[in-house]
Amino acid sequence: MLNLTEPLPWNLTHHRYCVVGVARSGTQLTEALLNYSIGKKFDGVVTLEDFMNFNTAYFANLDIDENNKLSFKMVTDADGKLKMAANRNVEQLPALGKDWIDKVSRADPTQPLTCRIFLDDRLTFISLVDGLEFLKKQNFKFVYVNRNFEHKILSSYFAKKTMIFRSGKNSAVLDVDIPELKTMILGRYLMEEHNKRVMTNIVGSHIVVEYDELTSMAAHLDETEKKLAFGIFNEKQLPLDPYEQIANSDEVKEVFATFYPNMVNLSSQLLGANR
Q1: Which of 33, 54, 110, 176 has the fewest CB atoms lying closer than 10 Å?
Q2: Is the residue at 11 inside a domain?
Q3: What would the DSSP string read from start to end of 89-108?
Q4: In whole angstroms, what is the distance from residue 254 CA to residue 258 CA?
Q5: Phi and psi, residue 205, nearest 5°
Q6: What is the pLDDT of residue 111?
Q7: How far is the C-alpha of 33 from the C-alpha of 39, rounded, in Å?
Q8: What are φ and ψ of residue 101, in 5° steps?
Q9: In this structure, are residues 49 and 171 in contact, taking their beta carbons and an 8 Å threshold?
Q10: Structural domain harbouring 38
């Protein structure tokens, strides 16, 4: 059993961290573990959730008090489901984003904060470059979450097809569309490689954590510890071997055995030529 009274096995001596990754890589789990660990050292840690995504601003209330302390809560209905405030609409999102930036910039610099940024997020009110630079100025340090590319893609494919993104096991058995999978692989790889370079150029040195390390930690928690550390714990959706739930598994394995490495080699040559 994991002893949650001990800090994480990362060098966490700071009070503000931003978790960076892509969808289906364990960013939410990482942020939850960070919150708990930082909370052992600092009082009043507040998470800003998916910082750049306007859906977070849309569904959340971020307040700042007379002492410049931030507080954050999601807007939910009586059943605990997210709901949008009646007076908010798409046209208001730029103003909401500007309000978030203003409040975070005015926050007490000693207040411990965490947040997430998705490198593949398109629904933003601020660019990736501006978002990273802003958080760096607010004294955030950065944690990059790394996950096996093949499993990350398959997890994304299942989530997209079943619309199950956040919690509960996904028991669907799918017949994967091979041309669609290849398109996803190509687009995702090029986007990730470009944005990882952007991130490294802006933030410099950063902590790298592995997805398997995170899930190993979570596997040692009992239900009480999960609630204590995470509040609402997001259960791993697919089995360790996702091919158990793929009807045409041999075809998909062949894509990752041949198409993917060939694509990586060609892309690396193109990216290297454009440096």
Answers
A1: 110
A2: no
A3: -GGGHHHHHHHHHHHHHHS-
A4: 6
A5: -65, 145
A6: 92
A7: 10
A8: -60, -45
A9: no
A10: 16-273
